[in-house]
Please model this.
Amino acid sequence: MQTNHPSAVTVRDLIRFLDGWAPPSLQQPYDNTGLQVGNPDAEIAGAVVALDLTHAVLDEAKAQGANVVVTHHPLLFKPVKRLAPGPGPSGLAYRLAAEGIAHVAAHTNLDAIDGGVSFALAEDLGLEDVRLLDGFAGQTVKLAVFVPESHAEAVREALAEAGAGRAGRYDACAFATPGTGTFRPLDGADPFVGTVGALERVDEIRLEAEVLRPRLPQVLAAMRAAHPYEEVAFDVYPVERVSDSVGFGAIGTLPEAEAGAAFLARVAERLGERALRYAGDLARPVRRVAVCGGAGVDLAGKAMAAGADAYVTADVTYHRFFDVLDGAGRPAMLLVDALHYATERCAERLLADTLAAAFPSTTFRRTEIRTAPVKTFVA
Model:
């Protein structure tokens, strides 16, 4: 991933980086990731990173001299009919425009990448050996390119550098098959090998590597740049397999098993919440843990199928707590609702740290505002 940028960083540079890290094609249909309000050509004087955009966050940005706010949750989910001072998305969008502050969001696309929000949540809880919980289907293609033997290694390295050939905990995965390529250069051609009008036979290598569909354009660009032919022969075809690189949720293990009550105390302490909602047997030990930042109860079945002793997510409705009961009505897993804000606040750290590393000349400050509108009363 490119991390060296000139000292003058624009909003467009920021968006380009985010799109490469968390491709917009991974966002859910209902989502609205990317630039929400602002001039993409504006230079970034400083940025505040928050989970949500609120008036308090805008006050904080102004006090710090920042002209960009980066959030996980987008401001504009639905179309607004007018921009005017006041509460809600309309008022916030009006204020952004009036005060010259740009707003950029990375939402479900940041949830979906390996190392995304759920992985950050797993890190906060102290999980080890963390992997994707529920991979997307239809997100992987196989790229096969035909290259002369003399340039096969250079093309293979270019593909790997651009992100092709990643499988689980491995990268640079490829397969090479030798063969003979034939072609006849026609008038106007400038062949790397051969003569115009003469049939040519060349010892070539068929290089194959899997590529995530959102990464395909950059991989093809790298392939063409490294390939010596002016007309590159290649094939792209779908791989009918669930991805192990993009999807939702994460699963890992605790360093040691602990009782359910001790695990709830861990969650409460590490996420900064005094009260948690849960269903399950606190006497059962917890070692294997699945997580999903935000509203992830739909993955409870995936968590149980993966052998999770506990699943931590948010926004669990009353009847969904019954989902963890087995056929005899006994809890098969500890289901923990740790509240939406607490399970996604880690997105602030993830965004701030990643952007600061990518743009070392620009200041990205994590907000000091607790943006959650929900408070918990403990009697």
